[in-house]
C-alpha cells in the first residue's frame, strides 16, 4: 500500500480487508468503509448512521408476502416514489454519486449505488434480492431465475419488462441480451465495480490521482481482483513522483508476467528503468 498512510487510512483499510475476507461480506459496511476513505469527515458516528438509516428504511416497507413483483413494487413505491431516490445523467460527473452516505443524503447516485440502497433495504426486510450487472447499467433482481423480476433504481425503481432490459443492453453494447447477463452478482463483485467507477472518474481528472490511487489500493485488498491493477498502481506511483516505489512495483509485476509473456515483461522492465532514471 501507499507509504505514509495516516493512522485512520491504515485502520480503514485493515477493516475493509477483514470484511472483504469474512465468510459473508457485508456490502453496506464495505461501501461505508470505502466512503470513509474518500471523505475524511465521515467518522464512526456517520458510518453507524448509514447502517441505522438502511435499517429504518427497511422498517418502513409494508410486509409483502407475495412474489418478486410485489417486492419490486414495494421498493419502488417507498424509495422511488415516496422518498425520491433516482439518478440523472449529471450524477456520473460527481464522486459523491459513488459514496453510499452521500447517496443516502442526496437520494441521487450512480445506478450501482442506488442498487446498493435497494438491495440493502430489501435484504433487511427479507426480500429475495441481488444485483444484476447489465452492460452499462446496474439493476436489481428479485426472485429465482425462473420468476426473476428486474427493477431499475436509477429510474426510481421502475420494474423492467423483458423488452426494457433488452433495450438497455442494446443501447450499451449494440448486441442482443445474453441470459448470462442476468446472473446475480456477489457483494465483492459489486464493490470492485464501484471502485472501477471511481477509478474511471479519477482517470479523467489528473488532479485527482490520489483518488485513483486509493481506489486501486482498496481493489487490491479484495480476495479476487485483476492482476493488472498492480501495474496500474505502479504507473500511478511513478506519475505522482514516487519513482523508487513505482519502479520496484513495475519490476515485481514484470516478474509475475514474465512466465507467460516475456515481451510484455521486457516492456515493463523498460518502464521501471525509466522511472529509476528520473531520480538522476
From TrEMBL:
Residues 50-196 form the Protein SirB1 N-terminal domain. Pfam families: TPR_9 (PF13371), Transglut_core2 (PF13369). Belongs to the UPF0162 family. This is Transglutaminase-like domain-containing protein. The lineage of its organism: Bacteria, Bacillati, Actinomycetota, Actinomycetes, Kitasatosporales.
